């Protein structure tokens, strides 16, 4: 798939099934993350790849977070099932490093670029996924389970696998609604 075609036609795919990316394909996805823009070469990232029993472990973390957060019984019952919506979930973490030239927001943005690169690399190789956040990404119990420091962030959960169906095409947006030109 050509890079421009990939970027202009990107869609998220929430309905995923086995197989998950593996071998050289998964290595390409991981290498794409490591090429994200990274001011001062801080590599302010940490990625946790959850598959198989790892998905259950992630589900247990979400369930414990739901209980600790006094969520509804329905949310508590649903929590351990959330990671099972795909055969692989990559937890993307921005590991903040104090640097006078690279503020916190830039390090989080760098991690977000890495997530986008991983999804694009998956799509380019015949897989797809969806980048999810939600309340669990900001939950203190989840952050504690991943041993995060106060300024670290879970940027998202990248669900990856084989699409169950072809993604529906998106209606093109007008760039004029979002871009302005200062030519003078």
From TrEMBL:
UniProt-listed InterPro entries: NAD(P)H_nitroreductase, Nitroreductase, Nitroreductase-like, YdjA-like
EC number: 1.-.-.-
Domain of life: Bacteria
Keyword Lyase listed: no
Cofactor(s) demanded: FMN
Domain Nitroreductase span(s) in chain numbering: 18-161
CDD domains named among the record's database cross-references: YdjA-like (cd02135)
Keywords from the UniProt entry: Flavoprotein, FMN, NAD, NADP, Oxidoreductase
Family in the record: Belongs to the nitroreductase family.
Name listed for the protein in its UniProt record: Putative NAD(P)H nitroreductase
Organism: Bowmanella yangjiangensis
